[in-house]
Amino acid sequence: MAAAATRFRLVFHVPTSHLAVTKAAIFSAGAGRYPGPGNYTECCFTVLGTGQFRPGDTANPHLGKVGELEEVQEASVETLCVGEDVVRKAVEALKTAHPYEEPSYSVFKMEDF
Question: Which residues of 95-111 are buried (b: 16+ CB within 10 A; e: fewer)?
Fold first, then answer.
């Protein structure tokens, strides 16, 4: 029996103005697909909240001004990536589609119980 591909959880934060385009980018890269007979695609969980940051002296912020605290309505998105190649492509797509210089994201390797 062949071993199942490693699963990863990609979590990122994005301003709501760029939520749709960012999700479309990661889904095009293969994120959000569940293996199995249901052939589910574009699966994710999204929660709205407030992000904050203060751009440093050398920043070129998409929003806000250098040195000033900025609060932004953002979405936190979680999705499944099956296979290391998929999660790497999804992170690259995220970085390309995301408006920030430094997108906030995390990748977690999941266990199969």
Answer: eebbebeebebeeeeee
CA neighbor of 30 nearest in space, from 8, 12, 14, 49: 8
Q: Nearest to residue 12, comparing CAs of 65, 100, 76?
A: 76
Q: From first to last of the 113 residues of the chain, give the pLDDT tens digit.
A: 456 789 999 999 999 999 999 999 999 999 999 988 889 999 999 999 999 999 999 988 888 899 999 999 999 999 999 999 999 999 999 999 999 999 999 999 999 88
Query: Using CA atoms, how far apart are residues 96 and 103, in angstroms rounded to an integer?
Result: 10
Give the chain's length.
Answer: 113
Residue 55 maps to which CATH number?
A: 3.30.70.120
Residues 6+ positions from 101 with CB-CB distance below 8 Å:
59, 60, 61, 62
For residue 2, is it within any domain? Answer: no
